[in-house]
Design a protein that fits this description.
The complex is a heterodimer of chains A (342) and B (518). With 342 residues, chain A is α/β, with parallel strands linked by helices. Chain A has 13 helices and 14 strands. Chain B is an alpha/beta fold and 518 residues long. Chain B has an eight-stranded mixed beta sheet with strand order 4-3-2-1-5-6-9-10, with helices on both faces. A six-stranded parallel beta sheet of chain B has the order 14-13-12-15-16-17. In chain B, strands 7-8 form a two-stranded antiparallel ribbon. The radius of gyration of chain B is 23 Å and the shape is globular. The termini of chain B are far apart. Classes of the chains: A alpha/beta (342), B alpha/beta (518). At the A-B interface, helix 9 and helix 10 of A face helix 4 and helix 10 of B.
C-alpha cells in the first residue's frame, strides 16, 4: 500500500466530478491511495453498488461524526458541510497505519501530470498551500483587481481546493487546529471574516513553521488566476502553463458562471477552452442518470421540504432548539420543521 | 406552367430556393430519401445546382459546411460549443438506413469478372480495387478528385476501377464489436453498382484470384469507416499480397486526419499518452487506432505513396510503421513553358495596384479569417485590391467574387482564373499541415505568388522550393508584410518573373506510377 494518500470531499451531486478527479489522479500517480469523503446518501431505491469504484477507500460523514452527525450537519449548507468534514477526515487519514503524506484535492479538480513534486516537497515541508494568485493584477485592470485580488482578500489568500501535509508534529498541530475550527466555525460568514474552511488558512503561515507556499504556476490553475497564466501544448503534447507543466486545473463552477469567468480571463487562449470542453464531456460521461440533479440527502427535511438557510443558522446558534429537537431532519408533529412552521 | 414552377423552385442562377432546400434536405444537409433522384443523377453524381448544398464529409476533416456557416475559430469558445465527442459524431454520421439489397459473392464475381474496359493498350485486364471513405461521385474534396482522376485514367492504363467505400460513412475506423462485417458501396468504372458485405467482396476476389482470370491490385486512399482487419484480409488475395497506401492525410497517425486537436489547433501528432491527446476528442480512439494501423502494416506489404516529400518526412518522423517502399508522387507537377509576351502590356497597364487573391472555400481551415482581416483592415494602403475565386459565393465582398468551378473536365479552371484575374499574391494560410495543396499549384500556374505560414506543410515547402512567395512564422509577421513596402518588392519580383518562364499544371499518373513498376 502506498504511503501517499489523496482525499476529496463531496456529495452525490458531485460524484461525476469526483470520479474524473479520481481517474486523473490514478492515471498520473497510480500507486497513491484515493479516499472519498462522502457527506450524502443515495435517494431511496437507488442502488449504485459500483458508484465509488474509482476510490480505494470511502469514509462517510456518519463514520467521522458518529452520533452527533445529524445535529452537527444540520447547521451547515452543502458547501459548508463538504468543507467542514475536511479537518476531521484529515485527522482520520493521518491516523491510518503506514500513511506518510496526505493531499487534499477538491472534487472539481483534474490532474494532468504527476504530482510527485508535491510528495518530494513534503519531505522538507509539513504543509503545502497554493495561493489563488501568484502575480499581481495590472493596476489598470480594475475588474481583475476586484475579482481576483479583492476576491482573495475576501475569501482567503490560499485556495483550499488543495492542501498537503506530512506526518510531522507541525502537520499534526495544524490538522488538530484546523479540525477544531472547522467543527465549530466552518460557515460562509464573510460578514465576520469567516469563509468556510478557506479563510482560516490565511493564518497558517502565522501559526506553523516551514509552510511551503507553492508558487509554481502549473498548480491549481483556475479562472481566478488565468489573467496571468497561459496554457499551450508543446510539440511533445505536454500542457504547459507559462512554460511549466500543468499539474492540476481547478474547474470551479462548471456551467454558466464558470464560463463567464473563463471567458473574462482566458481571452484568446483557446487551449483553456479546449480543457473545459474536455472536462465538460468527461463529467457528462461520469454522471449517473439515477441521481437527480442537485441531490443532497441532508438538504431537505424527511418529507422532502428544502431546509432554509436561516433555519440552519437558528438551529446552530440556539442550544435550546438543539436540546428540544435532537433530530432536526424529522417531519411531523413536535419537530423542528413544525416549529419553523414549514 | 413548367417555367412558372421552375421560377418558384429555383433562383435565376439555377440554385434551389430556400423553401425547396428545406423540403429536399434534412437539417444535417443530407438528402431526404424521396428526393434523392431530384438531387442526384442515375449514376449517383450530385446535380450541379445542388452540389453546394449537399453535405461533404471530406476525409476526416471537420464536417465541411457552407462557407457562410464556417465556424468562427477566432472565437474558440463558440466553436467548441459545436464540437461533439467523437462517438456522438459517429452516431450522427451513421444516420443512413442499411441498403435494401446486398450483392452476394456470385453477383460480385459476375460483375468484377465481366466488366472489362474496351481499351486495353497494355493488353492487360487487371482489376484495381480502390479503398476510400465515401462515394466519390457524391462528395467533393481532395481525395475524391484524386479518385475521379485515377478512375478516368484506368481504361488507358488497362484497369477496371472498383472503388469501395463504407455504406455508413463514419469519422473513424469501424469497430469490430459494433460491426464485424462492414457494408460497402461499390462504384465500378464510375458507375454505382450496388452494396455488399466486405466479406463477400473478399470471397469473390479470392475466387477471382483462384480462377486466374485477371490480376487484382489494391490501392488505399482512405481507411476511414472500414475495418483494417478486413482490408488486410482483402490484401491477402490481391497480387503480391501488397497494397499502395496513400498519405493524402494523416489518418494513419490519428483518427483526426488533419491532426487538428478538437478540430481547432494543429497538434503535430504527439505521443498518444500526451496531455494534448488526453483532452482531444480523438484521444481515446487514437489508442486503439494506432494499434490497429500498426497491425495492418504488419500484415500487409505496403507501398506508401506520399504526394509530397515534406509529407513523407513528417510521416516517417511520427511513426515507425514497416513499409515495403516509400515513393513521392505529386498529384500534379509544374512544368515550365515559354513566356507569354502578349501579357506584358497588360501588366504594365495595371500600374501600382496590387491584387490579392483567395482561392476556394472560405473556411477557417484554409485561412479565410486571415484574408478577411487583411481585406477589412481600415489602415491598409489604398493600392490593394482583393479578389475571391471560388465556387461558393462569399458572405461579403461579392463584387470582388469570381465564380470558378474546377471539375474533372475543367481541371485547370482555377489556374486559368488566377491568370485572367492577374492575381499578384494568393493568401493561403491553412490551420493544418497540407499534404499536397492543389491551391498552391493552381496559384503558381496562374503566375501568382503565395504567402503562407510555416506549419502549412507542402504549401510552405512548395513556396520555398520555387521561391514564389513568402513563408511567415506567424500572423503578425504576415500583417506587417502587407502593411509595409515589403509586399511591393515581392510583387515586383513576381511581375518580372511573370514576363519570363511560365508554369503549367501537368497531371501525374497517380497510383499507376507505382502499380506499373511493381
Amino acid at each position: 500500500m502506498s504511503k501517499i494518500h489523496v482525499f476529496t470531499s463531496f456529495t452525490y451531486s458531485y460524484l461525476n466530478r469526483a470520479r474524473v478527479l479520481a481517474s486523473t489522479v490514478r492515471r498520473h500517480n497510480p500507486d497513491w491511495v484515493i479516499w472519498a469523503i462522502l457527506t450524502d446518501k443515495l435517494p431511496e431505491g437507488v442502488l449504485l453498488p459500483d458508484s465509488l469504484k474509482g476510490f480505494d477507500k470511502v469514509l462517510t460523514v456518519e463514520e467521522i461524526f458518529g452520533n452527533e452527525t445529524r445535529k452537527w450537519l444540520f447547521g451547515h449548507d452543502i458547501v459548508e458541510a463538504c468543507t467542514a468534514v475536511k479537518g476531521r477526515a484529515l485527522q482520520w487519514i493521518m491516523r491510518e497505519p503506514g500513511v506518510e503524506k496526505v493531499i487534499y484535492l477538491d472534487p472539481d479538480i483534474a490532474v494532468f501530470n504527476s504530482l510527485d513534486p508535491i510528495a518530494t516537497l513534503l519531505d522538507t515541508h509539513p504543509i503545502i498551500l497554493t495561493p489563488h494568485l501568484r502575480d499581481p493584477e495590472d493596476r489598470a485592470d480594475v475588474t481583475a483587481i476586484q475579482d481576483n485580488e479583492m476576491g482573495s482578500l475576501m475569501h482567503g489568500a490560499y485556495n483550499l481546493g488543495f492542501i498537503a501535509v506530512n506526518q510531522s508534529d507541525e502537520a499534526h498541530r495544524f490538522a488538530n487546529w484546523w479540525a477544531d475550527r472547522l467543527h465549530d466555525w466552518c460557515h460562509d460568514r464573510r460578514d465576520i471574516g469567516v469563509f468556510v474552511d478557506q479563510k482560516w488558512c490565511d493564518l497558517i503561515p502565522c501559526f506553523f513553521d516551514d509552510v511551503k507556499v507553492l508558487r509554481d504556476p502549473g498548480y491549481n490553475v483556475a479562472s481566478w488566476n488565468l489573467s496571468k497564466r497561459k496554457l499551450h501544448f508543446d510539440l511533445a503534447g505536454r500542457a504547459l502553463i507559462n512554460g511549466h507543466l500543468l499539474r492540476f486545473f481547478h474547474f470551479t463552477k462548471l456551467g454558466p458562471i464558470g464560463d463567464v469567468m473563463t471567458r473574462r480571463y482566458a481571452g484568446d487562449n483557446s487551449e483553456i477552452y479546449e480543457l473545459w470542453w474536455w472536462y465538460r464531456h468527461a463529467v457528462e460521461l461520469a454522471s449517473e442518470p439515477a441521481i437527480p440533479a442537485g441531490w443532497w440527502r441532508y438538504g431537505t427535511f424527511e418529507n422532502g421540504v428544502q431546509i432554509p438557510k436561516d433555519g440552519r443558522e437558528l438551529y446552530r446558534v440556539r442550544g435550546d432548539l438543539r436540546a428540544a429537537f435532537p433530530d432536526p431532519y424529522l417531519s411531523g408533529s413536535n419537530t423542528f420543521q413544525e416549529w419553523l412552521k414549514l | 406552367m413548367v417555367t412558372g414552377l421552375k421560377r418558384i423552385a429555383f433562383h435565376k442562377s439555377g440554385k434551389p430556393r430556400r423553401w425547396l432546400r428545406s423540403v429536399v434536405f434534412r437539417k444535417d444537409r443530407t438528402v431526404r430519401k424521396m428526393f434523392e433522384r431530384v438531387v442526384k443523377k442515375k449514376n449517383g453524381q450530385v446535380r450541379p445546382n445542388f452540389s453546394e448544398w449537399v453535405i461533404s464529409r471530406d476525409s476526416g476533416r471537420e464536417i465541411s459546411i457552407l462557407p457562410q456557416n464556417a465556424p468562427a475559430l477566432n472565437r474558440p469558445e463558440a466553436f467548441l460549443q459545436s464540437v461533439l465527442p467523437l462517438e456522438n459524431m459517429v452516431g450522427i454520421w451513421r444516420h443512413r438506413a442499411d441498403p435494401t439489397s446486398l450483392l452476394d459473392t456470385d453477383d460480385l464475381l459476375k460483375i468484377i469478372s465481366t466488366s472489362g474496359q474496351k481499351a486495353r493498350p497494355l493488353g492487360r485486364s487487371d482489376l484495381l480495387i480502390a479503398v476510400s471513405h465515401d462515394n466519390y461521385l457524391e462528395n467533393i474534396g481532395g481525395i475524391q478528385i484524386c479518385i475521379q482522376r485515377e478512375q478516368k485514367l484506368a481504361a488507358a492504363k488497362g484497369f477496371d476501377y472498383l472503388q469501395i467505400h463504407p455504406w455508413h460513412a463514419i469519422p473513424r475506423l469501424a469497430h469490430v464489436d459494433e460491426d464485424d462485417d462492414v457494408i460497402i458501396g461499390l462504384v465500378l468504372n464510375g458507375n454505382y453498382v450496388g452494396a455488399c458485405f466486405t466479406s463477400s467482396l473478399i470471397k469473390s476476389v479470392k475466387d477471382l484470384n483462384q480462377i486466374g482470370q485477371r490480376g487484382t491490385k489494391l490501392v488505399i486512399h482512405q481507411l476511414m469507416g472500414h475495418l483494417t482487419e478486413q482490408i488486410a484480409e482483402l490484401a491477402q488475395h490481391v497480387d503480391g499480397r501488397r497494397c499502395v497506401f496513400w498519405l493524402h492525410d494523416f489518418f494513419s497517425l490519428c483518427p483526426s486526419a488533419t491532426l487538428l486537436r478538437n478540430g481547432l489547433r494543429f497538434c503535430d501528432a504527439p505521443p498518444v499518452t500526451s496531455n494534448s491527446c488526453g483532452i482531444c476528442k480523438y484521444g481515446s480512439e487514437r489508442i486503439h487506432h494506432e494499434q490497429r494501423i500498426e497491425a495492418f502494416f504488419g500484415a500487409v506489404e505496403v507501398d506508401v505513396v506520399s504526394p509530397s516529400q515534406v509529407t513523407a518526412d513528417f510521416w516517417q518522423m511520427h511513426c515507425a510503421l514497416p513499409t515495403a517502399s516509400i515513393s513521392i508522387i505529386p498529384h500534379i507537377v509544374l512544368e515550365e513553358t515559354a513566356p507569354d509576351i502578349s501579357r506584358h502590356e497588360e501588366n504594365t497597364q495595371r500600374g501600382e495596384k496590387i491584387r490579392i487573391g483567395y482561392l476556394g472555400a472560405q473556411v477557417h481551415q484554409k485561412g479565410w479569417h486571415i484574408f478577411k482581416h487583411l481585406m477589412d483592415d481600415p489602415s491598409r494602403p489604398p493600392n490593394r485590391e482583393f479578389v475571391v475565386l471560388s465556387s461558393g459565393r462569399p458572405q461579403m465582398g461579392e463584387d470582388l467574387w469570381k465564380e470558378v468551378r474546377v471539375s474533372a473536365n475543367q481541371p485547370d479552371a482555377m489556374a486559368a482564373a488566377v491568370e485572367q484575374t492577374d492575381v499578384d499574391i494568393v493568401v493561403h494560410w491553412p490551420t493544418c499541415f497540407e499534404t499536397f495543396s492543389l491551391t498552391t499549384y493552381e496559384a503558381f500556374a496562374g503566375s501568382a505568388y503565395v504567402v503562407t505560414n510555416a506549419w502549412s506543410g507542402n504549401v510552405a515547402d512548395a513556396v520555398k522550393r520555387t521561391g514564389r512567395g513568402v513563408v511567415f512564422e506567424n500572423e503578425a509577421k504576415l500583417i506587417e508584410f502587407f502593411n509595409t513596402g515589403l509586399i511591393e518588392a515581392l510583387v515586383d519580383q513576381r511581375r518580372k518573373q511573370k514576363d519570363g518562364a511560365r508554369l503549367r499544371l501537368v497531371q501525374s499518373d497517380l497510383s499507376y506510377a507505382i502499380l506499373q513498376e511493381k
